[in-house]
Amino acid sequence: MLRRSGASRGTRIHRFLVYYGNTRVGVADVHEDRTNAVCALIVGIAKAHRGKRIGTIASRALLRKCFLDFNARRVESSAISSNSASLAMQDGMVEEGRAVERFKVGNELFDEVRFRLLKREWEQQVASRTAPPA
Ligand SMILES: CC(C)(COP(=O)(O)OP(=O)(O)OC[C@H]1O[C@@H](n2cnc3c(N)ncnc32)[C@H](O)[C@@H]1OP(=O)(O)O)[C@@H](O)C(=O)NCCC(=O)NCCS
After folding, report:
1. Nearest-CA residue for atom 44 of ligand 1
2. Cβ neighbour number for residue 13 with a 10 Å cutoff
């Protein structure tokens, strides 16, 4: 007999659609680990709509949602080292390290690059963006 273990009880996945005006241009997932108050972000923008800062704006909106609505104390994301767009999009997030040779694509091996933002780091960033000029 199998019983549901407690391991996943505290995990919720929130799914979002990303709109540009009235057009649906992407998707985003937040994996919320409620036990540890940690959220992980995944964002995907349709090819035709990339490079217009939509991913950056969607990520900022998701960070706000994680810290204010889901009460996260830490938000994480990661990118394969070959994905230059995703690496460049980690606006404000702090690189924490690499899982070396984590991914195999064909015969090539790539690292996983890990990023984080703590709630206090995010609050400092928001304060510095909204501070009036001295
Ligand atoms: C990663 C992704 C979400 C970026 O979305 P986007 O709306 O195109 O990104 P933005 O326009 O906001 O650009 C973000 C940064 O990436 C850079 N960038 C965009 N496309 C790029 C490309 N093809 N190569 C290198 N850098 C790129 C931009 O110059 C910008 O950097 P800057 O802030 O220093 O100017 C999008 O490329 C995507 O959906 N990729 C496939 C799914 C994926 O890899 N998701 C990430 C896993 S979480």
Report:
1. 86
2. 10
Nearest alpha-carbon partner for 60 in 122, 12, 114, 132: 122
Q: Which residues in 57-132 belong to E strands, given as ranges?
A: 74-80, 94-105, 108-118
Kindly state if the Cβ of 86 falls inside 6 Å of ligand 1. yes
Distance 30 CA to ligand 1 centre (A): 18
pLDDT tens-place string over residues 43-84: 999 999 999 999 999 999 999 999 999 999 999 999 999 999
Statement: the pTM of the whole predicted model exceeds 0.85? yes
Q: Which CATH number fits domain 11-130: 3.10.290.10, 3.40.50.2300, 3.40.630.30, 3.40.190.10?
A: 3.40.630.30
- CA of 80 from ligand 1 middle (Å) equals 13
Write out the DSSP string of 27-93. Answer: EEEEEEETTTTEEEEEEEE-GGGTTSSHHHHHHHHHHHIIIIIS--SEEEEEEETT-HHHHHT-TTP
- Centre of ligand 1 from the C-alpha of residue 89, in Å: 5
